[in-house]
Amino acid sequence: MPDYRQRILEHGRLLTLPEVYLRLQQVLARDDFSMQEVTEVIQYDPAITTRLLNLVRSAYLGLGPRIDTISHAVNYLGAQSIHDLVLTTVLADRFGDIRNEQFNLQDFWLRSVRTALFTRALAQRSLPDQAERLFVAGLIHDLGYLMMQQAIPEILDAPLSLPQEQRLEAERQQLGFDSHEIALDLFENWQLPDSLLQVLAARRHPADAGESAQSAALLAMASDLADAVGVGADPLPLPADTNIRELADLDEEEAADAVTEAEQELGHAMRLLFPHLID
Question: How many domains does the chain have?
Fold first, then answer.
């Protein structure tokens, strides 16, 4: 059998993030960085600057026209939030226009953005200080599937329409590995922050995530709810795994309210992040 895993990983390692993000990583890795340095790095890339300001001013954060410069945004939001917004922006640019006739990119990003919004809305109710970082986790958690669709589209049998856990199981049965493993390799190669990596790595087994267990459980719950909404489930079921429900620390009413709130933002978020995918 051909080494499909190696082919996918080699493809993924060619996918580097833009210079502006790499420079921002270098600055934030130092203990003595200044907000002025962060501002200067972002302003180095005018396109990212424009998209970041549009994101900050949008309903995504609800800050409106009060934020009129990158310097203002950096000082108002802080280093972690700015890092996560820059990462969101560069990933939307980097992976928003992949050509594959066998694969519906709009459906992929619709599910990913829905998961991101659900994760953030759930976190705002039980872990508010991590809500924006968990939006990023939700947005990128399924990138391994996109890598597989790029590298081996003619081989991959598991369709995007399958609930994610069923899709991962189908991938393992066909290939001996799954897109979750591929995504983690990609994220480690990009040297994403440890706090983000821990959540993404433990999404399927949140109880193993230590201090990130609640964050991982919220991501797992959001992913399950995104699948349920995608097939029109009513009422929406909470995850069958009692560990996830307990770690997320949310009841059915809170989860339903979060989903309703987030679903109202879906169209706007898609237009903001992936305008070319909107008919």
Answer: 1
Report residue 246 as tokens.
């307990």
110: CB partners within 8 A, 6+ apart = 266, 270
Buried residues in 125-142 as b, exposed as e (16+ CB within 10 A)? bbbeebbbbbbbbbbbbb
Do the Cβ atoms of 110 and 72 come closer than 8 Å?
no
Closest by CA to 187, choosing from 113, 96, 117, 91, is 91
Whether the Cβ atoms of residue 206 and residue 244 lie closer than 8 Å to each other: yes
What is the domain-level CATH number for residue 133?
1.10.3210.10
pLDDT of residue 249: 92
> Does position 111 have pLDDT exceeding 60, yes or no?
yes
- The range of the structural domain enclosing residue 203 comes to 4-277
Q: Which residues of 107-119 are buried (b: 16+ CB within 10 A; e: fewer)?
A: ebbbbbbbbbbbb
Q: Mean pLDDT, to the nearest integer, of 150-160?
A: 87
Query: Which percentage of the chain shows pLDDT scores above 90?
Result: 53
